[in-house]
Amino acid sequence: MNSNGSNKGFRYFVTFLKYLSLVFFSFVAVLPIISCVITAFKTDTEYQQTNVMVPPESWFNFTNFTQAFQRANMGRAFLNSTIILICVLVASVLIGTQLAYVLNRFKFPGNGLIRNLFLFATLLPGVAMQISVYEIMFKLHFINSLPGYIIMMCGTDVIAIYIYIQFFENISYSVDESAIMDGASYFTIFYRILLPLLKPAIVTSCILKGVGTYNEYYCANLYLQDKKKYPTVATSLYTFVGPLGSKYNLICAGVIISLLPALILFIFCQKQIYSGLTAGAVKG
């Protein structure tokens, strides 16, 4: 009886530690968001004289939001980011799915070599290749050019290609054979039959690629040098950072504004997002 009681008490203690760790790490994850929301509603005087966790005097003071939107030119930034995001996602899906289709459905000399090269490319740090990429962009006159930046961002997403390949491997070859017997071409098989079946994989890859493209700062700051003409959501927030100090209340207001489109999209598309990620995890 004593051993059973001690084992039961130990299990309760382990369960308590699990829930305690969940609560602690959830609090750690939510704390910066709470601090950002509180700071966004503070005036300059309040921010300088109070702690970041002290609530503002008024929760209905939207002056910081209007100033952040106007002074950071966030209207143009949202337009540029939307154009970049749509073009990059469409191009990435078309290129990635077609590459995965060829690598999975057609066996030819060099197929395994290409797959291994893609795997090798994932091991190379992006920063280490920036000198070569910058020289290529300079030679092609793509620096300070929105189309040039879009072309660069449309570079092959290796992770997405492997996701598509895994989905293709779960689609039977008999589907292709039946379509060929009915007189369908390879393009018809891909666009009419196989591509709709890749919807969960496309959703998964678009989430991964879209988040990275929307939040991308390094390349946007490096190649889109005219910040008045080609601001993005990520680079526009650095308008309030300078050698004489940073306007963190305006930065936090801009962060909240930049989060609203993604939050609205998540609320309306969360069913598709969850189903895509779940299907990708099971089939991958």
Label this structure with key terms.
mainly alpha; two-stranded antiparallel sheet; 2 strands; 284 residues
Explain what this protein looks like in three dimensions.
With 284 residues, the protein is mainly alpha-helical. Helix content is 75%, strand content 1%. It is built from 14 helices and 2 strands; from the N terminus they run H-H-H-H-H-H-H-H-H-H-H-H-H-E-E-H. Strands 1-2 form a two-stranded antiparallel ribbon. Helix 4 (74-105) packs across helix 8, helix 4 (74-105) packs antiparallel against helix 11 and helix 11 runs antiparallel to helix 14. It is globular and about 75 Å long. Mean pLDDT is 83; it is low at 280-284.
Topology readout:
Layout: H1 2-40, H2 44-49, H3 63-71, H4 74-105, H5 111-123, H6 130-139, H7 146-153, H8 158-169, H9 173-181, H10 186-197, H11 199-214, H12 218-223, H13 233-236, E1 241-242, E2 245-246, H14 248-283
Antiparallel strand pairs: 1-2
